[in-house]
Amino acid sequence: MSQSKLTDRFGRTVNYVRLSVTDRCDFRCVYCMAEDMTFLPRQQVLTLEEIARVARNFVDLGTEKIRLTGGEPLVRKDILELVKEIGTYGLRDFAMTTNGSQLTTMAEPLRKAGMHRLNISLDSLDAEKFRNITRTGNLGQVLDGIDAAREAGFRGIKLNTVVMKGRNDEEIPDLIEFARKKQVDISFIEEMPLGEISEHDRGLALCTSEEVRDIIRQHHELVPATEDSGGPARYYRMPDSATKVGFISPHSHNFCSTCNRVRVTVEGRLLLCLGNEHSVDLRRVLRGNPVTDDKLRQTIINAMDLKPERHHFSANGDVQILRFMNMTGG
Ligand code: SAM
Fold first, then answer.
1. Which one of 15, 57, 77, 284 is separated from 127 by 20 to 30 angstroms, measured CA to CA?
2. What is the domain class of 16-327 according to CATH?
3. Residue boundaries of the structural domains of the chain
């Protein structure tokens, strides 16, 4: 694998790309979307061939890790074709973030197509609360999907839980027991102010990673994991289990100095930071240069100069970024 040719003004190497394959989703999670979302018209959305071309060029520039996300990646038609194609690029790590609703049928084909790891969102183990948070989701379907993913033999499965006070913070011990029983990892995420929502007050709902750790410590010892994830999550182990517990704390822990990632939205906008608007339009370059990739590669290399030093999320829930997470690619 080649050394990454992507470095920014602050000496950070970018070797991880998150590609959004759709802005559409079968769920409407209260922290992620408004209830009445309008989705992008088809011509604004990259084709699967265009997404693969972006991925291939990032790999040629030294990218070692790709995550497919959305929206819900498994609602994109023919997504397996894209997974199969990217699966041939020799990545060190190829992953997907999914809500799990389609995994009973898709887990095995995904694994066979070359996907290494899955992150599955799970905010509640109570069917009614789950429905309330996702607005449309069916908990049983997702739990069956998690089992199907375990049987398919992925290298790693991690659950993602966005913790909201008064909503699912009481379920933290149950979620930990569930992860231990299923022998999967779990990360608890602080809600980020992405997109304007009226459903709840993000400032009031914020449950910090510190608070989540305190709750878990009433039940289990948490030992900081020695290995560096290289990402925003800080991991802990429990002495009597293989399950790792991660904390993603955009409010209380600034991880920008080691940021190694960029995102590409499904419109082909290369976003240099989750918490800033700095971006470059790759769709224009892709469609203006359909035959050769030189211009595309140079555009990606030059874009690194735009990567900001850090983001500034405030804890009062104020929206600083108008993009919803489904537009950004979570
Ligand atoms: N549909 C897939 C899923 O549900 O995992 C992938 C896309 S979703 C946008 C990716 C992740 O972003 C999910 O784990 C979700 O919980 C998280 N997320 C969405 N909005 C968020 C917010 N405002 N703050 C923190 N995490 C958020």
1. 77
2. alpha beta
3. 16-327
